Amino acid sequence: MTWVSWRLHRTQLLIIGTLAVLAAVAMTTTGRPPMSLAVHDVQALAWGLLFALPVAAGVVVGVTVTARERERFTNRLAWTQGISRTRWLLATLVPVAVVGSVAVALISSIATWWVAAAGNGPRIDPNPFDVSGVVPVAYFLASLGLGVLAGSVIRNEGLAGASAAIAAIAARIVVRNVVRPHLAPVVHLTSAHFPLRDLGPIWSSIPGGSAVEHGWILGYGWVPAGRTTPLPGHSWYSSFRPATGSDIVGVRCPVVTPSGSRSSFSVHSDCSNPAHLHFVVNFQPLSHYWLLQAGEAGIFLAGAIAFVALAAFLLRRSSE
User: Fold this and answer.
1) What is the span of the domain harbouring residue 155?
2) Are 69 and 113 contained in the same domain?
3) Model pTM?
4) Which is nearest to 55 in space by CA: 128, 120, 142?
């Protein structure tokens, strides 16, 4: 069955392997901060391949395991040879899952190095996080499971692939923006002063701010004393307004505008004290990187197992 699995998926695996090699070459040749437009463009290509590869590889291979077989009715031949449908599914799926996981893991290891060498920001930031560590392998396996599940429900290979891709992308977006920030305890840093200068926040100007510079910032702004998040109905940006002033939960404070520069959207500390406000930044420190990786990888791996189990159940109940 391993040889049969290779014959069935060799075209897809070769295409995916070519894209993986292209991503690896793009990373190894731009493993430094971009100093020219050409290097920047190659790095952009690398980012695109790294983001797309786990989902594309998983979905494309997954739908061929079930949808293509069902669309061409070749699955019926295997099912009449004394092999159970669950065993047929696993014998076809496991080899490509192992090969794909190893390939994605290799690319992820190169990406982990590349993120740091090319100066792409802290690895816990959302974009570097998505392409490094162990989560790319989990993304691949979850997409593979979705492809298998979609193919067990939809006989048409193209329609099954499109449905699985949409579901996989939606899952990644939801987990990244809604779930990931809460997979580890959020760290709150408070200050009576707003660490803002002309070019942006200067976190090192407040106690403990160096951890913010190397962490994943979830939000920051002025909030009422005793709180670490904005009031209901307000956002982190409620404290920032144009040069006419800042309206913070009903309190108007003047804006600091350095001479000869644009407004810094900063609130005077002598206004924050009477208004009972303090500056808060919520972030995930770099030390939480592997905790977040483990949590997110676990979610997608659990999803992969559930998708394949459901697909096996549907195939066993199928009247084909």
Assistant:
1) 2-182+288-317
2) yes
3) 0.80
4) 142
